[in-house]
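Example protein was shown:

_____
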Amino acid sequence: MITPEEIARVVAYLRGQFKNDRINIKPPAKPNAPVEVYIGDEFIGVLHRDDDEGEVSYDLNISILEEDLPGMV
């Protein structure tokens, strides 16, 4: 489970890395529900917390649908 404090830290990190203050993470509505990441109102992916022998990391999984890509040039 990702805490609100962790969410705030990850949001600050992502905003700094991507220079985009519109990045936001919504806490899950229910326990064990995915943690959703947005840019503005656009859903871009889910965030997972991994705790391996005391080493914590966060994985951002971004899915891009082929139908959302621009046409071939």
Observations:
- Residues 4-63 form one domain.
